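This part of the workshop introduces the protein records we will be handling. The question running through the whole workshop is how a given chain folds. To make this concrete, we reproduce a full record directly below:
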Amino acid sequence: MEKPIKKYNVKAEICTRLDKVDLQELCDATEEAIIGGGGFGWILPPSYKTLQNYWKGVLLIPERVLILGKLDNVIAGSVQLIKPAKNNEAQSHSCILSTFFFAPWARGFGLAKAVFQKAELKAKQDGFKVINLEVRETQHRAIQLYEQSGFIKSGINPKSVFIDGKYITGYYYYKEL
């Protein structure tokens, strides 16, 4: 007899507040993603207090929209949609996807697709015409996901990131909505 295939609950949602459990899950996922080499900007995990303060701060910035990816109702990662400052009228048509990550245990379940769809929907609802992002050349899976989602490579920065005494190239992408 074949073993039944387990269905996983995958969802993406806009976050406007974090309770204690949410904050713990988000900090844990962030730390695991950093250790797993999943990008995010930190090279080594900061203190738990720093992570808490970072995520609390994200929710205070009006130009940032935090979108959480959940697997079976546990926060496994996120992305931020960053809106241009009010004085930047010339770029008011575009927003930026930033700090996209998932904990290693949550990869391969379709969370990235769900989070991208939620981010795109929110960007369209807010009147944006273009989404921009930057990704390290070493983030092969992320690059694959971006390209599968319709992002177009538009540039290269050979000195985007400096880690362990070496520069890492960054790629710029955009997607018209």
